Amino acid sequence: MDAAIGLPIREPGRMTVPTTVPTASPDIALVDAARAGDGDAFGRLYASYCRMVHGILMARVPRLEVDDLVQDVFLTAFRKLHALRDPAAFGPWLAMIARNRAHDYHRHTPETAELPEDIAAADASEAEAAAILALIQSLPEAYRETLVLRLVEGMTGPEIAKRTGLTPASVRVNLHRGMKQLREKLGGRHE
After folding, report:
1. Would you give the end-to-end CA distance of the chain in angstroms?
2. Distance (Å, rounded) from C-alpha 39 to C-alpha 5?
3. At 2, is the secondary structure helix, strand, or coil?
4. Domain containing residue 45
């Protein structure tokens, strides 16, 4: 743990993603405590929102870049926490930072080509996962994000709504339409 801001120290090529999300602590109290310099409070916000940020980035940037960008997003949030007007809006504010970071990544990164999946992937399941992620990334943005948060990050619909600031109805519609389009694309792959 980086004692200064409560972020886990990341080993190169490896991201530690918390598997549990604290539910008892309200975000408002954690944001206020983090603003007052409590690194542990910011670490708890990180644990609570890491999956959401990871999923938002996974929907938008190459998967090998996601772990570093997650760290960038939280570092930006830590540095700009004083500018957040409403502590209750921490989740949507953090989601917007993640989306903006992904946008910046594409603006400043030259186009690259990845190795073909049969060469780059060590086994068939990794290649299949990469192919499905590529299909998800080809969907409209609203569907990409909610599908990755649901299918990759394992978040529930209500959790996605709460964390991102979307309405539960929007999340349901995006998941339904996104799954329909994904099924159509998957069906087209196997014909």
Report:
1. 49
2. 5
3. strand
4. 1-112
